[in-house]
Amino acid sequence: MLNRKIIAQNITNLTDARYFAAWGVDYLSYNIQADSPYAVSLEAIKEIKDWVEGPKTLIESNAIEFLDFSDGHILSNIYSSLPLNKEAFFRIDISEVQKGLPSGKYILRLEEDDIDTFKALPTDKYVEADVYLDIQNLNLNRFSDWPNLGLAVQGGEEEKVGVKSFDELDELYELLLDESYD
After folding, report:
1. Is 155 domain-assigned?
2. Of 72, 94, 114, 125, which residue is least crowded by CB atoms under 10 Å?
3. Model confidence at 180, in pLDDT bands (50, 70, 90)?
4. What total of structural domains would you count in the chain?
5. Radius of gyration of the chain (CA)
6. Buried b (16+ CB within 10 A) or exposed e, 36-71
């Protein structure tokens, strides 16, 4: 079992989805923003989802775009087999944590220089919040220095259909299985 909660973001293909589902991640996140290099259609999400069990599905969207969907619209009118909740995760940086976070779900983007600043903050600044650390700008060699938060990892492009190297992610996976980091 993983020692932290995990969101796998920017899932664009079945290879990533199955890989992360095998990890036991909590969420698979698909981006539907048209201007994103990771954008996928709702139809593609449904096709991928049909082959993967376990993780909850997140749709990454512009907040206004997402609010345009009426309650149950996706569930009842488009993809009844694609369970979605209107659960909002907000992207934040260190300055917002320093002000204090209300209860909610957040994806925190930190730079290497921000790690010590974050760790020095009193926990009452974020104790009510469910925070996931976006690790794309962090050095895996400093894993033991990272705050003990959930993690947001990245999917990406395949080298060719069904073929992808997961070497760097495999190293992270081993760390997430290590009980000494609990």
Report:
1. yes
2. 72
3. low
4. 1
5. 17
6. eebebeeebbeebbeebeebebbbbbeeeeeeebee
